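User: I'm writing a short methods note and want a consistent example. For Myosin motor domain-containing protein, I'll paste the sequence; you return only the structure tokens, no commentary, since I'll be parsing the reply automatically.
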Amino acid sequence: MYDNHQLGKLEPHIYAVADVAYHAMLLRRKNQCIVISGESGSGKTQSTNFLIHHLTALSQKGFASGVEQIILGAGPVLEAFGNAKTAHNNNSSRFGKFIQVNYQETGTVRG
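Assistant:
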């Protein structure tokens, strides 16, 4: 639904942000960066998962690579060691997260 649509033409969604970054990367051949920030419990982890899902779906071009599950699989490991209960959130991240996805020139995920 958000694939290759101009930002702002459809309702705001994390998939639209992923789509714009992915297509800008392909068109301009420049690295792209998406920063997700917010207060505790605002949905940053869930937004990150949606973002990775859409970025890997865009890059698969009709075949499944399993990269999405590998990237998302790191989340529970980090959370097991880096989350704690706070006044606002029972499972609050106590760390920053940097995820780098490398692409081939064709737009498929390299790793």
